[in-house]
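fold-stage: in
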Amino acid sequence: MVFSLIQVLSGILLTYTYTPDMMEAWNFSPNLAQEVVIEGSHPSLLFTLLIGLISVTIAYFISKRYINNH
């Protein structure tokens, strides 16, 4: 429990103090892929997409219920 609390607090602190280097990001941008190709019909890919769809649906209905109750 203490370790988890320390991890969360250090993550918050590091996120708060992080400042990105924009010039370095632009230097890396030409090396990035210009498109993403998703191919194959592996059951794991379909399962992952299904889990994502279910998660988004649950989040949507929870947010609608929360907004309607307040």
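fold-stage: in (second)
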Amino acid sequence: MRTPARRDRMKPLELVIISLIFGLFGGLIVLMSTRELVLSAISFGVSFIVSLVVIAMLVLGAKPNKAELLDIEEQNQPVQDGAVAPEEGSSSPH
């Protein structure tokens, strides 16, 4: 079994950062409209937790089908000796 790529390892952190941004947005909106720090902190916490749960549920619901799994496996295979990897965006000669 191979170790996951850096992109795969950083995916959970990306989702937490997105939730943090949503929480900051909610907290700042409440802070600018009410000027209450406690209410803003509560809004930040609620926004962060709700967005984290919603994003987690969306990620869990987005499972790849068999064709996508096969494509992922093909892309993860190392390039054979002497073979040239196709460039992205290149079209096949057929």
